[in-house]
Amino acid sequence: MVAILRIIVAFPKLDDAKKIKNVLNRNGYDDILAFNSASQVIAAANESDGGIVLCGYRLADMHYSELYGYLPREFRMLLVASPVRLQECAIGNIMCLPMPIHSHELISTLETMEMELTAMERRRRKHQPKKRTEKEQKTIDDAKALLMERNHLSEEEAHKYIQKLSMDSGNNLVETAEMILAFE
Fold first, then answer.
1. Which backbone phi and psi does 25 adopt, to 5 degrees?
2. How far, in whole angstroms, is CA 46 from its chain's centroid?
3. Distant-in-sequence contacts of 47-50, Cβ < 8 A, 24+ apart
4. For labelling, which of 8, 118, 157, 167 has a CA lying 20 to 30 Å from the CA of 17?
């Protein structure tokens, strides 16, 4: 599986981050950034649409748990640390891998996290309102204009009236606007 989201690798030693980046590149991942500070990770995450932060227990400027708190909600964290440190890991949404890392375990874990992020994105899109076409928006605007003229309503009142009628009838806004226009 090839990554569709950004992967940010961060370890106190930049060379370690670059080595992991190279392993990921060899396994088909290409949108990877390597850093050695949490501030760089946060800046890069805020400029991205989502992804995975793969990091060590403590970076030069921040502990992993603090970094996790600053990440946008579209990001997940994969913590790589010694087994002793992982026992101290208190945040339930963070995936963990013990050191030393084996490349097949790393790739498998990233694929699992990627599937989770992809499913979350699908659910988010599914619950977003669908963008209206110009024709649909014109139908709603025409119905509002008719209500404003005929019933002396403000635009906001006309819109609320169409919304309420829509909810009460179980039709969407465009269908309700079409019904209003049909009874003109």
1. -60, -45
2. 11
3. 48/5, 48/6, 48/8, 48/72, 48/74, 48/75, 49/5, 49/6, 49/74, 50/5, 50/6, 50/74, 50/75, 50/117, 50/121
4. 118
Query: Which tokens is 41 given?
Result: 């990770």
Q: What local confidence, expressed as pLDDT, does residue 1 receive? A: 40
Six-digit token string for 141: 């605007």
pLDDT at 89: 75
User: Are the C-beta atoms of residues 27 and 107 closer than 8 Å to each other?
Assistant: yes
Query: Helical H runs in the chain?
Result: 14-26, 38-46, 64-70, 83-87, 103-126, 134-151, 155-169, 173-182
CA distance 93 to 77: 8
Q: Enter the pTM of the model.
A: 0.65
- Asked, as a colleague might, if the bond just before 98 is cis with ω within 30 of 0, I would say no
Q: Please, what is the average pLDDT of the chain?
A: 88
pLDDT per residue as tens digits for the range 92-149: 788 899 999 899 999 999 998 888 888 877 777 776 667 888 999 999 999 999 999 8
pLDDT of residue 45 exceeding 60, the answer is: yes
Helix (H, G, I), strand (E, B), or coil: what is residue 71?
Answer: coil
Q: Are 12 and 60 in contact (CB under 8 A)?
A: yes
